[in-house]
Write a structure and sequence with these properties.
Layout: E1 44-46, H1 58-64, H2 78-89, E2 109-114, E3 118-123, E4 128-134, H3 138-144, H4 149-153, E5 156-162, H5 164-171, H6 175-196, E6 199-201, H7 209-215, E7 223-232
Antiparallel strand pairs: 1-4, 2-3, 2-5, 3-4, 5-7, 6-7
The protein binds flavin mononucleotide (FMN).
Length: about 240
């Protein structure tokens, strides 16, 4: 496996493929489903401190990044989960600035992580996961994502959601635009970090918003913008 971490990157706004419906995916065997833990998981899951060193040189990461839609069944390590979420929304300054830029530093974006145990919300201040929905919701997320194969196969799914009202308090009608731009920055940071970790990941924009919010137990004030299935890179 490649060493951890890649420098955070100013990313491109999601522009290509936004109107896409279900895309063609390479056929692959479904990996065995992870067995859920028998003991209930605690509501807070502290993640190991993210590495600030090593990783791929930036230009090598840019050259290597490709959307990967097949994964091994191995569960992500806590370090991998922590590194990916930190790359998306980690706090990198004493003043609270984060890895990804945010209009007016208002940070209207939230990251969730779904695994075999629960749906978790990333808490950047504590660098940990707060349980949002108990149990394995990955199948339900995949259904909301039009049953796309990468979602059905991934050991982990990162979800990027916005709460535009946070940004609208200052930017009014431009808030949704800014949230979408921020999702692009966050997504690219996560995708490049997956590359640096030797993991495979794919940005997925085709899903049913209402159904996804229902699965995540979130109200209509949230705007889901990206699903990012991630797992061990696996060539069938
Ligand atoms: C906004 C956006 C939405 C996307 N939605 C999907 C999707 O729903 N399903 C999928 O398999 N790939 C999706 N992709 C990935 C693109 O298909 C992929 O980026 C494109 O084919 C180029 O390949 P590359 O990422 O390997 O360079 C999406 C990409 C973007 C930027």
């Amino acid at each position: 496996m490649k060493p951890v971490v890649i420098a955070a990157l100013a990313a491109l706004v999601c522009s290509a493929g936004c109107g896409a419906k279900v895309e063609e995916n390479p056929p692959a065997e479904s990996p065995p489903v992870e067995v859920a833990a028998e003991t209930p998981a605690p509501d807070f899951r502290e993640l190991p401190e993210a590495s600030r060193e090593g990783g791929l040189p930036l230009y090598e990461g840019l050259e290597a990044r490709r959307s990967a839609r097949t994964y091994g069944s191995r569960k992500l390590t806590e370090a991998e989960v922590g590194q990916l979420l930190w790359a998306g929304q980690g706090i990198t300054s004493a003043r609270g600035f984060r890895t990804a830029p945010s209009a007016g530093a208002l940070y209207p974006m939230f990251l969730y992580y779904a695994d075999d145990v629960a749906l978790w919300r990333y808490d950047p201040r504590r660098h940990g996961l707060v349980k949002a929905v108990d149990g394995d919701v990955r199948r339900d997320l995949a259904r909301a994502g039009l049953d796309q194969a990468p979602l059905k196969r991934a050991p982990g799914i990162i979800i990027v959601v916005a709460k535009p009202a946070i940004s609208a308090a200052k930017y009014g009608g431009r808030a949704e635009r800014y949230c979408m731009i921020e999702a692009g920055h966050i997504g690219q940071n996560i995708l490049l970090t997956a590359e640096a970790l030797g993991l495979g990941a794919c940005p997925v924009g085709a899903f049913r918003d209402g159904e996804l919010l229902d699965v995540m137990a979130l109200g209509g004030e949230y705007l889901p913008l990206y699903l990012i299935p991630v797992g061990e890179a696996f060539e069938p």
